[in-house]
Request: fold
Amino acid sequence: NSSNSSSKRRSCKVFRASSEHIAVPLPEDEVLRFCEGVTHLRPVAGRDCVQLAHVLSHAFAEDTPPATTTTVHHEPSALERARRMLPAMFTSMELRNAFTIYVQYILSGCLDPDFFDSIESTHDAYWEQPVNMVRNVLENRKHSGAASGCWNAAFHCAVEAQPDLLVKKVNYQGSDCEACHRQCRNATMKFQLSGPLYNRKTLRTVREEEEAAAAEGEGGCVKATADSEEDDVAVFLLGKMCAKRGQIYHQLHHFPFHLAEKCRQQVSRLAPRGLDNSEIIATLMDKQHWINSLFHDLEEMMRNVDKFLS
Reply:
């Protein structure tokens, strides 16, 4: 009827807004395969987004409801399943695009210590919106599922302070979980935190910031506490559930710092080439396989979180 036709035209218009019309409809199984390929949390390049818009716009325009009004129980068609995938599909694409800019943001901060402050003061939408999207994805999962209200302050602070973690099973020695102190939670997991203290805003270690301040003549000599802070190790004996929650929380909380470490490693490899900052950023942002591997790390972590919460 006319309302169905109007609805299909509106959908078609959305998908065709920035792409050319394909005159030949694709088989349903090809549409589904393409949809499944991008919804299984794989990185999606910009050209693939355009291709997806082509495929779905024409396929949905050709998709018509069955003529019969008889209620029949049947398996959903390929296009019906593809249509159901759309929200997750475009959410994945949006996150992929935001993450690419987020990597550029971290790289820029690695090269210019004042970059983060300058972006924060200008509220540049190019940076602010994608960066906030990635941050929100991490924070929402961290607080909605990983965090526990039963953790004591000492454990919570230690988890947030040190970026390196080692978890291993130990023999039960009759003690309760040192994170929640519940008597029913037998401590069978060793939760060992280590690594340097760092600034959550700049993603630089305390030692790096003190050295930078000393080099600029602002902080005198590097504080003697910096080395000892990096060598500090905090150990907790936990129950199985708190250990798993703590591990997930720790991964989410320190993801930006570990991403910055990977960016710094890439920058250092380009140092001998004598490139300026803009050339270094352009060179690294052109390395799609590297960007893809970083995004895969994020997705893998998200899958593990969702699996734990399901």
About this structure: The longest strand covers residues 164-169.
